[in-house]
TrEMBL record:
Residues 5-118 form the Response regulatory domain. This is DNA-binding response regulator. GO terms for cellular component: cytosol; protein-DNA complex. PANTHER family: DNA-BINDING DUAL TRANSCRIPTIONAL REGULATOR OMPR, REGULATOR OF RPOS. GO terms for biological process: regulation of DNA-templated transcription. CDD domains: REC_OmpR, trans_reg_C. The lineage of its organism: Bacteria, Bacillati, Actinomycetota, Actinomycetes, Micromonosporales. One of its GO terms (molecular function) is transcription cis-regulatory region binding. The modification 4-aspartylphosphate is found at residue 54. Residues 128-222 form the OmpR/PhoB-type domain. InterPro entries: CheY-like_superfamily, OmpR/PhoB-type_DNA-bd, Sig_transdc_resp-reg_C-effctor, Sig_transdc_resp-reg_receiver, WalR-like, WH-like_DNA-bd_sf. Keywords: DNA-binding, Phosphoprotein, Transcription, Transcription regulation, Two-component regulatory system.
Length: 224
């Protein structure tokens, strides 16, 4: 697994250094930027997984940094503020930071916030988006299938077979391979089982969804 990278943007050198020391001890790769323009430049160069961002900076401020980096790609931002009322103000402005920490803060609190933010992002990334095939929607995380907005009940094996086919649309998948990949049967016996599950999927989701390639296998068609 890649080491996660954090960009610390803070012009007060002692604070920046102590944040960096603590995060490095937690296993992060840390870079420091000390003003607005170099924060944006280093963000593009280092592609960090998270940004710790002070509001008051030379060049341009943390709000502008936040705006510019978020315009590039979504990244979790933990913003450092000087006072509680500044935090309230920023929350009200909805600048795009994911969390705020008011100075002075403990390094323990900072690392806890960093871990929470990264976990949240990683959990969101681990949830695959729903697959859409015309009016059919496959939600892998919930193991649900809808057709024209209505739930379609599939058996667990039918579901796995559908997801497998949908992951390689228009590709002809031999029945033996489907047996190996979906059922875990490696000896090629039981191809009739594949046929009967395909028949069930067609009955439930429409006859046109899966094409038969005679003597070979099946391919999922993408509806227009
Ligand atoms: Ca500052």
């Amino acid at each position: 697994m890649n080491e996660r990278r954090v960009l610390v943007v803070e012009d007060e050198r002692t604070i920046a250094e102590s944040i960096a020391v603590r995060l490095r001890a937690e296993g992060f790769t840390v870079e420091i930027a000390a003003d607005g323009p170099s924060a944006v430049a280093q963000f593009h160069a280092a592609q960090p997984d998270l940004v710790v961002l002070d509001v008051m900076l030379p060049g341009f401020d943390g709000l502008e940094v936040c705006r510019r980096i978020q315009a590039d790609r979504p990244v979790p931002v933990l913003m450092l503020t000087a006072r509680d009322d500044e935090t309230d103000l920023l929350v009200g402005l909805a600048v795009g930071a994911d969390d705020y920490l008011t100075k002075p803060f403990s390094m323990r609190e900072l690392t806890a916030r960093v871990h929470v933010l990264l976990r949240r992002v990683e959990r969101a990334a681990a949830t695959p988006p729903a697959i859409r095939l015309g009016d059919i929607e496959i939600n892998e995380a919930e193991r649900r299938v809808r057709r024209a907005g209505s739930d379609v009940h599939l058996t667990p094996t039918e579901f796995d077979l559908l997801v497998h086919l949908a992951g390689r649309p228009r590709t002809v998948l031999p029945r033996e391979r489907l047996l190996a990949d979906v059922w875990g049967w490696g000896d090629g016996n039981g191809t009739r089982t594949v046929d009967s599950h395909i028949k069930a999927l067609r009955r439930k989701l429409g006859a046109d969804l899966i094409r038969t390639v005679h003597g070979v296998g099946y391919a999922l068609e993408l509806p227009l």
